[in-house]
TrEMBL record:
Gene3D superfamilies hit by this protein: Glutaredoxin
Protein source organism: Brumimicrobium aurantiacum
Protein name: DUF255 domain-containing protein
One GO molecular-function entry: protein-disulfide reductase activity
InterPro entries: Ssp411-like_TRX (IPR004879), Thioredoxin-like_sf (IPR036249), Thioredoxin_domain (IPR013766)
Entry superkingdom: Bacteria
Location of the Thioredoxin domain: 1-142
Any one annotated GO CC term: cytoplasm
Length: 142
C-alpha cells in the first residue's frame, strides 16, 4: 500500500509540473491567425498588408515538414509576422474546399500571397526551406 501511495504521489508531482510549463511554441516562427478568409481580407485592407495563405491538407507530408521546419524559423517568423496577415487553412474542411476551388489548389502545400481584393500576387508550390521562402517573398516586403 505504501508503494502504491508513493507511486501516486510521484505521478501527481510529475504531471502537475507539465501543467505549469510555459508554452514556448509561439515564441518563434510564423504566427498564424485564427481568422476566416473574409476576416483576413478585411484585416489586410485595414492594415494595408498582403495575406500569406498556407493551403494545406492534414495528410500532406511536405505540409507537416513546413510546420516543423520553415514555419518555425525565427527569421522567417520575424519577416512574415511583421509584413503579412498569416493564415493557415485546411483545404478539405470548413471554408477550405471553396477556397481551393477559387484559387485552383491542385497540390499541397500551396502557399499564396493574396491582396486585400482577393487577387493572387504570388503562388508558391511545394516544400521550401527558409532561405527559399524568404527569397520568394522579398519583392513583397515593405
Amino acid at each position: 500500500m505504501k508503494y502504491f501511495s508513493l507511486v501516486a504521489i510521484i505521478f501527481a508531482l510529475i504531471t502537475s509540473s507539465f501543467i505549469w510549463m510555459p508554452n514556448e511554441e509561439k515564441t518563434e516562427g510564423i504566427q498564424f491567425e485564427s481568422l476566416t478568409f473574409e476576416e483576413a481580407l478585411k484585416k489586410a485592407k485595414k492594415e494595408d498588408k498582403l495575406i500569406f495563405l498556407d493551403a494545406y491538407a492534414v495528410w500532406c507530408g511536405p505540409c507537416k515538414m513546413l510546420d516543423r521546419t520553415t514555419f518555425k524559423n525565427k527569421e522567417v517568423g520575424d519577416v512574415f509576422n511583421e509584413n503579412f496577415i498569416n493564415l493557415k487553412i485546411d483545404m478539405e474542411k470548413g471554408e477550405g474546399p471553396a477556397i481551393a476551388r477559387k484559387y485552383q489548389v491542385r497540390a499541397y502545400p500551396t502557399m499564396f500571397l493574396i491582396n486585400a481584393n482577393g487577387k493572387v500576387e504570388k503562388r508558391i508550390l511545394g516544400f521550401v526551406k527558409d532561405e527559399q521562402l524568404l527569397s520568394e517573398v522579398e519583392n513583397f516586403i515593405d
